[in-house]
Design a protein that fits this description.
Blueprint: H1 16-20, H2 32-43, H3 46-59, E1 82-83, E2 86-87, E3 96-97, H4 107-111, E4 119-122, E5 127-130, H5 142-146, E6 152-153, H6 158-170, H7 172-183, H8 195-202
């Protein structure tokens, strides 16, 4: 049975596991949007975000999008081209940006893992740009949760959740889990028995 072993390793605002769970067996202690946004406001993170955005664009100059110029040819990364064996391009999941609402803070660009290259940035127009939506982790909407201006939207999770249900029914997920546990035996955790469980074991 899966257990939460390291809750501190969870990305702030991420609820992907809960959204994809077909049995609604996973919950979080607070509304992720309120939780993350309260931290953003309380800690006044935007000066740090601005610095991180500059560092990201210097590191990946092809993520700079110029006005009137076609988006650079950044394609889906090979490691993200399949989602549990399913062609990623057939899965309708990725962010969309409402340019009228986007103020160009850059939070979405730096909130998303740099290895995924989902977002770029137009420095002249001060707008975030979706470069490769297929690089987005299926079920993840951290950028949307962290956007104080509600400029980012995603498709309904229902289609992806149904796909997850089919993958579980096919046995694919169990195969992947068994392989992962075999490769990482440290993931096996033996919990101490409760007094009731000890009584049952001794009967």
């Amino acid at each position: 049975m899966p257990i939460v072993a390291n809750p501190g390793n969870c990305v702030l605002g991420c609820t992907t596991c809960a959204k994809l769970c077909p049995e609604d067996a996973i919950t979080f202690p607070d509304d992720p949007k309120k939780f993350v946004r309260s931290i953003i406001i309380k800690e006044k993170v935007y000066p740090i975000v601005k610095r991180e955005l500059g560092e990201r664009l210097n590191k990946y100059p092809d993520h700079k999008v110029s006005t009137g110029k076609a988006i650079t040819d950044i394609s889906i990364k090979p490691e993200f081209s399949k989602w549990h064996g399913v062609n990623r391009k057939t899965i309708n999941w990725g962010p969309r940006i409402d340019e009228k609402k986007c103020i160009g803070c850059g939070m979405c660009v730096v909130q998303c893992s740099e290895k995924r290259s989902v977002f770029g940035y137009d420095e002249q127009r001060r707008k975030a740009v979706v470069l490769v939506p297929e690089n987005c982790m299926v079920g993840c909407n951290n950028c949307q949760i962290a956007c104080l201006w509600d400029a980012i939207t995603f498709p309904s999770i229902s289609e992806v959740r149904e796909l997850a249900r089919k993958l579980i029914a096919s046995g694919r997920i169990k195969e992947e889990l068994d392989a992962k546990l075999q490769q990482n035996p440290h993931l096996f955790i033996e919990l101490p028995c409760t007094s009731l469980e000890k009584t049952k074991l001794n009967q």
